[in-house]
Amino acid sequence: MTRSAPVLTIDGPSGSGKGTIARRLAEALGWHLLDSGALYRLVGLAAERQGKTGAPEADIAAIAAGMEIRFLTDEQGEEQILLDGEDVTTEVRTEECGRLASRVALLGLVRQALQSVQQSFRKPPGLVADGRDMGTQVFPDADLKVFLTASAGERAKRRYKQLKDKGIGVSLAALSRDIEDRDRRDSERSLAPLRPADDARVLDSSKLTIDEVTRTVLEWVREKHATN
Ligand code: DC
Fold first, then answer.
1. 18 in ligand 1 pocket by Cβ < 6 Å?
2. Is position 173 within any domain?
3. Which of 142, 154, 187, 209 could form a disulfide with 194 if both were Cys (CB 3.0 to 4.6 A apart)?
4. Which residues of 39-56 are buried (b: 16+ CB within 10 A; e: fewer)?
5. Ligand 1 near 111 CB (within 6 A)
6. Which residues of the chain have pLDDT under 70?
7. Is the whole-model pTM more than 0.85?
């Protein structure tokens, strides 16, 4: 094989549905899955636990490089995330952890430390990579790049339902504010800002079901295969 395993990148803002879609696509294709947002969340969580949220950038990057992370699926088919051997699945998905993640994501040395961690997920038969900069920075040579978006109101509603289903209580108004703040931080930052790669296909999922989005992307994967 002259080139490494194929990669399908799914980038987009918080609540665009990319996590669910990426998981569905990985299952349908039988490929590995990278949830890069979870890596930033784990760095934020680990830094907070060690009392280092305000520590120098290099210290937080050292945490990012040294974390022992495992992504598992339990008997019910639910995801399970272990940080240094401890189950942190519920904590990782809280809004608080999302805020911590968004802050550490501003640090260049942290992004640099996570670059090789993320690239190590690229293994045969292929990888579906979910994040903000998968197509622009981490896998610029990806076979297919998708930028998934949805209106801010629709994204807040989806996030609200998702958290409620997990038993995590939060108000819709607070969630909308949080999503807008986070969008602003993610798209205005100078390092790896959230934007579609020049060669990405943009898909607005505001009025589409999960099945419709999954089918559309699978169709694009097949088209790509047919032309390669
Ligand atoms: O997708 P998520 O909500 O789990 O991401 C949490 C934060 O991590 C998000 O606010 C921005 C950051 N992030 C990033 O900067 N780059 C990525 N590839 C993924 C996430």
1. no
2. yes
3. 187
4. bbbbbbbbbeeeeeeeee
5. no
6. 1-3, 227-228
7. yes
